[in-house]
Design brief:
Elements: E1 2-7, H1 14-17, H2 21-31, E2 35-40, E3 58-59, E4 62-63, H3 70-79, E5 84-87, H4 88-93, E6 105-108, H5 113-117, E7 122-125
Parallel strand pairs: 1-2, 1-7, 2-5, 5-6
Antiparallel strand pairs: 3-4
Helix pairs in contact: 2-3
């Protein structure tokens, strides 16, 4: 069974857990032998922007000592054989240029989403 994980909600739990829950789940599933890929859309396209650094984040006296490194997490997924797609138009609507993106993502047009979805047995949208 081939699974496509669609991530649309961005930065959910990233401060508490130091990673995105669904990307972590994707790592875990892949390590367990699942065949899956990931599609970043909506606000989650921000995950693919290189050079993000939340290390200076603080709330009152609390400081983030283990900041999320989501672009690196995406690279690690690619190393495991997971294709990470990104909706090109969603990035453009947010002012994100292709030059700003990590090389670990594969841009895809909205017009090609239906044919992409058709390649998978299960599509999980988060």
């Amino acid at each position: 069974m081939k699974i496509l994980q669609i991530v649309e909600s961005a930065y959910r739990g990233t401060l508490e857990e130091q990673d995105d829950t669904i990307l972590w789940f994707s790592h875990t599933l892949r390590t367990s032998g699942a065949e899956l890929d990931v599609l970043l859309r909506g606000n989650a396209v921000n995950y693919a922007v290189r050079g993000q650094d939340a290390s200076g984040l603080s709330f009152g006296a609390w400081m983030q000592t283990q900041p999320p490194r989501i672009a690196e997490d995406i690279g690690k997924l690619r190393e495991k054989g997971v294709t990470v797609y990104l909706v090109d138009e969603d990035a453009a609507e947010r002012g994100i240029c292709r030059e700003d993106l990590t090389e670990s993502v594969q841009p895809i047009s909205r017009a090609d989403l239906a044919s992409l979805l058709d390649r998978y047995d299960r599509v999980w949208h988060w």
